[in-house]
């Protein structure tokens, strides 16, 4: 049993923690401390010089946070991980680590709004440029590489259209050009997709979403395939920019992470039931879900994802007015951004998460006024379907009385 790597279902519960070293405490203790005392002056000297491993100060490392870092590294098949105060802190830290003034970042089109904002900031202040491309073929990726390109930054599935980037194609091109590959894996969680297995160098998560799963923490995680590089990042960008995770948030995340596998199974099975239901609705125009027979990218999905996950986007007939009316007629399903919580959430990308994207870009990305995004939660599927049913009935009535 010792030599066999543990399955993900076991890793989320046991990795990186030995209760015998903590008075038999079965739950990982919360080390709510800012500093650590040294046994003597020489030990302090050795900890600072790196000659002796051990705690110094909680911005440089904390035992509770360490358990979470070890678990996420094991789940993503990486060699090391760092915990951050938000998903955006993980994004900005890895990009600051990989770039210098004058460099270029090649990105998948449709990245998270604040990542887009960060890239604008980097361009304005440090002349670090970027291009946004669809990344569907190796040729297209190859064509977009410039002499100053240093990394490829990818999100897949893309929010909110659920379009996929072919990770193998990205890795193949990156290898030929010696570029680092960073994947924002928030939408699938480490349970459904592991980009390091395909050849990515870094994987990051907004742990606010599926990893925590309970909607009560803002946090980020970054996993690297090279342990030394993660250690460098810890002792440079993370230490000096200081965007660390608090021990309490790590403690909550350790608790949330334990149920990630069972939650992802249920998110997926609920999403599949809602998908079947939505397909039967005549007021629904199009549906976007990675594991859908009708999805032209189904083959890519099957190659790099284990299942479809909990996010479904769809369009309703009648544009913005219908979309907003539909949302207002829901009661169990909450109108909220974010995703990956136990509660089912619905949002309207064109007026909410993507309202800052210029209209032409939005239209090019397929984010129309009739598009809605559902983060399917963990409730009983038929209760969710009943809620959707009453909203569709109201919409139907509205369209007959107004036509
Ligand atoms: C939420 C999110 C982020 C940002 O994470 P925060 O924890 O809110 O800082 C980044 N990428 C994706 C895909 C997200 O959904």
TrEMBL record:
Cofactor dependence: pyridoxal 5'-phosphate
Molecular function via GO: methionine gamma-lyase activity
Keyword DNA repair attached: no
EC class: lyase
Record has ATP-binding as a keyword: no
CDD domains: CGS_like
Enzyme Commission number(s): 4.4.1.11
Keywords from the UniProt entry: Lyase, Pyridoxal phosphate
InterPro entries attached to this UniProt entry: Cys/Met-Metab_PyrdxlP-dep_enz, Cys_met_metab_PP, L-Met_gamma_lys, PyrdxlP-dep_Trfase, PyrdxlP-dep_Trfase_major, PyrdxlP-dep_Trfase_small
A Pfam short name: Cys_Met_Meta_PP
Record's catalysed reaction(s): L-methionine + H2O = methanethiol + 2-oxobutanoate + NH4(+)
Family statement: Belongs to the trans-sulfuration enzymes family. L-methionine gamma-lyase subfamily.
Name under which the protein is recorded: L-methionine gamma-lyase
Organism expressing this protein natively: Sporosarcina oncorhynchi
């Amino acid at each position: 049993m010792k030599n066999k790597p543990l399955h993900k279902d076991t890793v989320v519960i046991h990795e990186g923690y030995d209760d015998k070293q903590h008075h038999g405490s079965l739950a990982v203790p919360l080390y709510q401390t800012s500093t650590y005392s040294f046994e003597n002056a020489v030990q302090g000297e050795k900890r600072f010089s790196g000659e002796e491993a051990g705690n110094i100060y909680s911005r440089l490392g904390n035992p509770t946070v360490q358990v979470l870092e070890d678990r996420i590294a094991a789940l993503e098949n990486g060699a090391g991980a760092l915990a951050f105060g938000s998903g955006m802190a993980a994004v900005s830290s890895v990009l600051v680590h990989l770039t210098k003034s004058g460099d270029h970042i090649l990105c998948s089109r449709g990245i998270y709004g604040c990542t887009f904002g960060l890239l604008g900031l980097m361009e304005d202040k440090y002349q670090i440029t970027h291009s946004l491309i669809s990344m569907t073929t190796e040729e297209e990726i190859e064509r977009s590489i410039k002499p100053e390109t240093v990394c490829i930054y990818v999100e897949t599935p893309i929010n909110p259209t659920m379009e996929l980037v072919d990770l193998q194609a990205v890795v193949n091109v990156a290898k030929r050009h010696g570029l680092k590959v960073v994947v924002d894996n928030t939408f699938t969680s480490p349970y459904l997709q592991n980009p390091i297995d395909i050849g990515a160098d870094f994987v990051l998560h907004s742990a606010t979403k599926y990893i925590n799963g309970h909607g009560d923490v803002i946090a980020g995680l970054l996993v690297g395939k090279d342990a030394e590089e993660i250690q460098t990042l810890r002792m440079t960008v993370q230490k000096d920019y200081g965007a660390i995770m608090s021990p309490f948030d790590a403690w909550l995340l350790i608790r949330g992470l334990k149920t990630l596998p069972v939650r992802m199974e249920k998110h997926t099975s609920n999403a599949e039931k809602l998908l079947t239901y939505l397909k039967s609705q005549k007021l629904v125009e199009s549906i976007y879900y990675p594991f859908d027979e009708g999805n032209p990218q189904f083959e890519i999905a099957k190659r790099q994802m284990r299942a479809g996950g909990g996010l479904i986007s769809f369009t309703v007939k009648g544009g913005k007015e219908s979309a907003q009316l539909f949302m207002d007629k829901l009661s169990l399903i909450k109108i909220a951004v974010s995703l990956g919580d136990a509660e089912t959430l619905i949002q309207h990308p064109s007026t909410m998460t993507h309202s800052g994207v210029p209209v032409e870009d939005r239209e090019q990305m397929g984010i129309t006024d009739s598009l809605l995004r559902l983060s399917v939660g963990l409730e009983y599927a038929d209760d969710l379907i009943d809620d959707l049913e009453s909203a569709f009935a109201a919409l139907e009535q509205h369209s007959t009385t107004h036509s």
